[in-house]
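Morning, I've got a small favour to ask if you have a moment. I owe you a coffee for this, so here goes:
>
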Amino acid sequence: MRHTSLKRAAQLRTYRRDRDAYLADHPNCERCGHRAECLHHKRGRQGQLLLDARWWAAACWSCNDFAETNTGQARAEGWLLPMFSDIPEAS
């Protein structure tokens, strides 16, 4: 049995390529300015949000973890955004 569907596997291949290009263009964390180590998804990674670069931010591990452990403060700062508000429906 597959761990990942064929559709999601294709998305992940595209994502990895696009993520690496984004981090090459954004080498510093967009929250604190330290060296970026990962990609933060301000609206999450569910479905097509994984590939929606409008909601990406370069992040260090500490700032990416901050969104998980301090969700209220991260939302107040705009580091986390509501997942589905203001997103046009896919056609």
Observations:
- The first helix runs from residue 6 to 25.
